[in-house]
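Submission checklist for the structure archive. All mandatory fields must be present; incomplete records are returned to the submitter.

[x] Identifier: DNA repair protein
[x] Organism: Bradyrhizobium retamae
[x] Residue count: 261
[x] Sequence attached
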Amino acid sequence: MSTARTLATLRGSIERLEQGAAHDLNKIALGHAAADSVLHGGLACAAVHEVFAEGHQSAAATGFIAGLAGRVSPRRPLVWVRQDFSEIESGALSMGGLCELGLNPRLLVTVRAPDTDAALRTAADALACDALGAVVLEVWGQARQLDLVASRKLTLAAAASGVTALLLRVAAEPRPSTAETRWIVRAAHSPPSAPWSAWGVPVFDAQLVRNRHGPVGRWIMEWNCDECLFSEPSAYPQPLAATPAHRPHQAQAFAGQRRAS
């Protein structure tokens, strides 16, 4: 089959996929009310989603995409494909860290690829396995191989098997793709933790810059490690003591002092 004919076949398949309405897609709610509303119910399964790390935000983007994987694939195996270069730059994935995020490390299979071409082939092969829940493809740098054609192939593979593809892009600029959504993620300030906890909850500044079926937006999203879902940060992260019933409210007491003076 010639290259032109292959491209025409891929374009036709993608167009047929794009003609489906947003509500026809199987969605998984993220838990964050505003984000789920913009996404018409949540993150679309059996599709490709991109998460970009801005600046030195690779750790935040990794945590965010781990949260997405936890929502999409809570009880099914997850394959995480990484380049050797990614491991050199940002270190190996921490099974303890993933466990603290609420993910089950026993369901995670990590694959180290020597280069971008091998990573793409491995991700495509993994997407063909319908026993999986999701495949994370972590690519470092601009990666000319991950072009529109490669993106379409991943989209077709995800749609055929029902497995969700999550692309983690570090030190890269967004390029044309067939991704259902595209996010730019930064770290946000965690609220003060409880006295018995050394760390605050993970909080992300998540900007949705591409949404094929609706508007975009930007939110502060807090990850609940126990319930494995995103939510809006609470205004008062720690419980507040109630005002004693036998004491007047502080404002009333000050008003009484002003009248007396």
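[x] Structure attached
Curator remark: The domain at 17-260 is CATH 3.40.50.300 (Rossmann fold). Confidence is low (pLDDT under 50) at residues 19-23, 236-261.
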